[in-house]
Specification:
Herpes Virus-1; aminoacyl-trna synthetase; 9-stranded mixed sheet; Helix Hairpins; globular; glycine--tRNA ligase; alpha+beta; coiled coil
C-alpha cells in the first residue's frame, strides 16, 4: 500500500526535486514558444514535461501514503446488494438515509463476527457482560455531558439543506489536491495538516477555512452565509404517556455500565480491576449519512469498560502482546511530517507514547482481532488523538483506523477516560461510586471531621433535616475542608436534593482526629475500547473482496472461516445424485454446529461454486458418484480452488477443525495427499500380487494339462472364481502378509464408479 519517503528517495528523485524539474522544464517550453518554435520542435520537450508531471504525481502519492483501499468498489457494492448482505431499509417507501437492513448472509456474518469478538475479548478476559436498556432518561446524559456536548458542526445553505462542516472541508481539500498536480509540496503539506485538524476546529476556525478554500454548498453552488454551528446528534423522545419525562435513545452503550458499577463491583467480590462489556444498538442523528455502513443513524456497538486503579494501570497479560509490532500514527506526526511509525507495543508503552500497559494491551488485542477477522495489515493503523480532540479529562486516546475505498476510517476507539464518568455521576447523585483496597500495613491518618448539631438542625428543619444530616455525614476530607472554609467566613449555604439549607454558627463543629486505617477508597479509572461493528464489517467486506483473475464477473469474499457467514456449501455434481446424500452431508455438518447452505439446483457445478464464493463460503462439499459407492466427498477450498476427497464420516470433524482454527487447509491437504500416495503404493502392491497369482494359475493349469488326471477332490473349487476374469479369494495368506481390498471388480464401470477387485 503506502510507500515511505525513504523508499521513494532510494528509487528516484523526491517530490520536491521533481517539482523543481517540472517548473524548470515548464519555463524552458515557455521560452521556446516565445522564441517562435513550432509544434514539432516543441514535441520532445512537451513529452518530457508530461513524463515529469507523471513522476511528480507518483512521488507525491508514494511520500504521502496511499489514502484509498484498492477494491473493485462497483462490483463489491453490487454483490453486497444483490446477494442481500446489506440493503436499504424501507425500500418500498424509497428508504431513509442512514438506515440499513442485513439480509441472510449479512446477518450470519455479523453474528459470527460478534461471536468471535466474545470469544476473543469477553471469554478470554473473563469480562462481565450486560444488556441494558436503550432508552435513557435525560438526567443521565445531562450529567455525562452528552446533552450539552454530543455535537457535530453543521452548515446550512440558502435552500435550508444541512451539511456536516468538517466533512465538506475534508472533501474540498481532497478534491483540490487531486486536481492540482502542480501544487507545491509546501502547500500540499499545509492542506494535509488542515485536513488532519478538520474535526478539532472551533466553529469560527472551521468557517474561516471553508471561506478561504471557497467551499460552496453541493446543492446550490453558493457560499455559506454563516459559520458552522453545533448540532446535537441524539434522538430525543418522551418516556411515559404524560410525556413529562424527557429521554433519548442512547448514543453509546457505556452509560448503562456506569449506572450498574456498584452492582458489578459487588458481583465481582469488590475486586478491581475488572471489565464490564455490552453489545447493543446505539443511535445518532447523523447530519449527512453516507458511505453505506460507515455513517448511519442506527448501529451496533461492542464496548468494554475496564475499571482499574488510577495509580496502577499495569496489565498482568501485557507480556503476551509486548512483542506485537503495530503501525502507530502519533499526534506529533500528524501536525508535522504526517508519517506513521512501526514499533512493538512494548516499546510504545515503555517510551510513554502509549500511556499505560492496560491501554497498550487492548490496542494489541484489537489488532489481533481485526487481523483474524480479515483486515489486511497494510490497511490498519492506530492514530493518536490530537490534544484538541480529547476531552479535558482523558489521559490518552487511540483510534484503530481501517483504510477503505473512502480513505482512513475510525472503527475502534480506545480511550483512557480517567475517573471522569464515575466521578460526575457520584457528584450528581451524591453517592459513592468508589472501590476499596486493603493496605499492606495500617496507616495513621489525621482527618478533619464535621459534627452536625442534630438537635438544632432537627428543631429548625424538622423532617427535612434527615437528607441534610445524611449529606453531612458522607462528606469526605475535601468536602469537610470546603464547608469549614465557608463557615469561617460566615453562614454556609448547601443544597441537598433540591432544598437549600443555611447553616449558621453553632450548627457545625469541626474536629481533627487521628486514626489508623487498613482500607483505602478510590474511584477507578476506566480504559474503554469501543467497537463500531458496522464499520468493522465494512472494512472486512472491502479487505476480503476480490474478483477471479481469469473472470472479472466472478466476485469472491475471502472471509476467514471463523467469521464466514456459512462454513460449507453442500451441492451435487449433477441432478442424478440422490437427495439422500445431500441430506446426510448437511446433517453431519449442522449436528457439529456448522452453518451450511445447500445448492440442489440443476445448474452446472461451476456455477454452484461461483454462488458459494460470492457469499464467502470457505469450503464447498460436492456429492458425486464416488460418494454413492465409496462414501467419500470432494471438499473444495474457496481461495485456492484446490480439492481433496474426505470420508463422509470425517467431513464434519475436518471442516469444523479448520473453521475453529485448530487445523489448516494446507495441513489437511498434505495429509490427504499422503493418504493418496499410500493408496497408490497399495494399488501397485496389489497389482503385483495379482500378476503373480495369475502367473501361478497359468503354471498350475499347464501342469494339470501335462499330468495324468487327478481325483476331483485334490483341488479346491474356491481358489479361483473366474466370474469376473480376476481372482476374488485365496484360501489363506502368506505369513506376515495383510489382506488387501481392491476397488472395483463387481461394480459397473461408468462415470461415477471405478473398477475394483477384492483380495481377502
Amino acid at each position: 500500500m503506502a510507500a515511505s519517503a525513504a523508499a521513494s528517495s532510494a528509487a528516484g528523485p523526491t517530490a520536491a526535486e521533481l517539482y523543481a524539474q517540472v517548473a524548470t522544464q515548464g519555463g524552458l517550453i515557455r521560452d521556446m514558444k516565445a522564441a517562435g518554435k513550432n509544434k514539432d520542435e516543441l514535441a520532445a520537450d512537451v513529452a518530457k514535461l508530461k513524463d515529469l508531471k507523471a513522476a511528480l504525481k507518483a512521488a507525491m502519492e508514494a511520500e504521502g501514503g496511499e489514502d484509498k483501499w484498492d477494491v473493485p468498489k462497483e462490483a463489491l457494492d453490487n454483490t453486497l446488494t444483490r446477494r442481500m448482505f446489506v440493503v436499504p431499509s424501507f425500500e418500498l417507501y424509497n428508504g431513509v438515509a442512514g438506515l440499513y437492513d442485513f439480509g441472510p448472509p449479512g446477518t450470519a456474518f455479523k453474528d459470527n463476527l460478534l461471536a468471535f469478538w466474545r470469544r476473543h475479548f469477553v471469554y478470554e478476559e473473563g469480562m462481565l457482560q450486560l444488556e441494558c436498556t436503550t432508552l435513557t432518561p435525560e438526567p443521565v446524559l445531562k450529567t455525562s455531558g452528552h446533552v450539552d456536548k454530543f455535537t457535530d458542526l453543521m452548515v446550512k445553505d440558502s435552500a435550508g439543506e444541512c451539511f456536516r462542516a468538517d466533512k465538506l472541508l475534508e472533501d474540498a481539500i481532497d478534491d483540490l489536491v487531486k486536481k492540482d498536480s502542480e501544487m507545491t509540496p509546501d502547500r500540499r503539506e499545509e492542506l494535509r495538516q488542515i485536513r488532519a485538524m478538520a474535526d478539532a476546529f472551533t466553529p469560527e476556525e472551521l468557517g474561516g477555512h471553508l471561506r478561504a478554500l471557497g467551499v460552496v454548498s453541493p446543492s446550490t453552488g453558493e457560499a455559506f452565509a454563516e459559520d458552522p454551528f453545533p448540532f446535537n446528534l441524539m434522538f430525543a423522545t418522551s418516556i411515559g404517556p404524560a410525556g413529562d419525562l424527557r429521554g433519548f435513545l442512547r448514543p453509546e452503550t457505556a452509560q448503562g455500565m456506569f449506572m450498574n458499577f456498584r452492582r458489578l463491583l459487588d458481583y465481582n467480590g469488590g475486586r478491581v480491576p475488572f471489565a464490564a462489556t455490552q453489545i447493543g444498538s446505539a443511535y445518532r442523528n447523523e447530519i449527512a449519512p453516507r458511505n453505506g455502513l460507515l455513517r448511519v443513524r442506527e448501529f451496533t456497538m461492542a464496548e468494554i469498560e475496564h475499571f482499574v486503579h488510577p495509580e496502577r494501570k499495569e496489565h498482568p497479560k501485557f507480556a503476551s502482546v509486548a512483542s506485537d509490532v503495530m503501525t502507530l500514527f502519533p499526534a506529533t506526526n500528524q501536525t508535522t511530517d504526517g508519517k506513521t511509525v512501526q514499533m512493538t507495543i512494548g516499546d510504545a508503552v515503555a517510551s510513554k507514547l502509549v500511556d499505560n500497559e492496560t491501554l497498550g494491551y487492548f490496542l494489541a488485542r484489537t489488532q489481533r482481532f481485526l487481523f483474524a477477522s480479515g483486515i489486511k495489515p497494510a490497511g490498519l493503523r492506530f492514530r493518536q488523538h490530537l490534544r484538541t480532540e480529547m476531552a479535558h479529562y482523558a489521559t490518552d486516546c487511540w483510534d484503530a483506523e481501517i483504510l477503505m475505498a473512502s480513505g482512513w476510517v475510525e472503527c475502534v476507539g480506545h480511550a483512557d477516560r480517567s475517573c471522569y464518568d464515575l466521578d460526575v455521576h457520584a457528584r450528581a447523585r451524591k453517592t459513592s461510586l468508589e472501590a476499596s483496597e486493603r493496605l499492606p500495613e495500617p496507616v495513621t491518618v489525621t482527618e478533619l471531621s464535621c459534627i452536625p448539631n442534630k438537635g438544632a438542625l432537627g428543631k429548625r428543619y424538622k423532617k427535612a433535616a434527615k437528607p441534610l444530616l445524611s449529606f453531612l455525614s458522607e462528606l469526605d476530607g475535601e468536602g469537610v475542608a470546603a464547608i469549614k472554609a465557608q463557615a469561617d467566613a460566615g453562614p454556609v449555604t448547601v443544597t441537598v436534593e433540591g432544598t437549600e439549607f443555611e447553616l449558621v454558627e453553632g450548627d457545625l463543629t469541626f474536629k481533627e482526629c487521628t486514626r489508623k486505617v487498613t482500607m483505602r477508597k478510590f474511584t477507578p479509572s476506566v480504559i474503554e475500547p469501543s467497537f463500531g461493528i458496522g464499520r468493522v464489517m465494512q472494512g472486512v467486506f472491502e479487505h476480503t473482496f476480490y474478483v477471479r483473475p481469469d473472470d472479472e464477473a466472478r466476485g469472491v469474499f475471502g472471509f476467514p472461516a471463523e467469521v464466514a457467514p456459512f462454513k460449507a456449501a453442500v451441492m451435487a455434481v449433477d441432478s442424478r445424485i440422490p437427495d439422500e446424500f445431500l441430506h446426510r452431508a448437511r446433517s453431519a455438518l449442522t449436528a457439529a454446529g456448522l452453518s451450511v447452505i445447500v445448492d440442489d439446483s440443476g445448474v452446472a457445478i461451476g456455477r454452484k461454486y461461483a454462488r458459494a464464493d460470492e457469499v464467502g463460503v470457505p469450503f464447498a462439499v460436492t456429492i458425486d458418484g464416488v460418494t454413492t459407492t465409496e462414501g467419500t466427498v470432494t471438499v473444495r477450498e474457496r481461495d485456492s480452488m484446490r480439492q481433496i476427497r474426505v470420508a463422509l464420516s470425517d467431513l464434519a470433524a475436518t471442516i469444523g477443525a479448520m473453521c475453529r482454527g485448530e487445523d489448516t487447509w494446507e495441513s489437511v491437504e498434505a495429509r490427504a495427499a499422503g493418504a493418496d500416495a499410500a493408496t497408490s503404493v497399495a494399488s501397485a502392491v496389489v497389482g503385483a500380487v495379482t500378476g503373480a497369482v495369475a502367473a501361478a494359475a497359468g503354471a498350475v493349469s499347464s501342469a494339470f494339462a501335462a499330468s495324468p488326471a487327478a481325483p476331483a477332490a485334490a483341488v479346491s473349487p474356491k481358489v479361483f472364481d473366474r466370474s469376473h476374469g480376476l481372482p476374488t479369494s485365496i484360501t489363506g495368506t502368506a505369513k506376515g502378509a495383510e489382506a488387501v481390498v481392491m476397488e472395483g471388480g463387481d461394480r459397473k464401470i461408468g462415470r461415477f464408479a471405478r473398477p475394483a477387485v477384492s483380495i481377502l
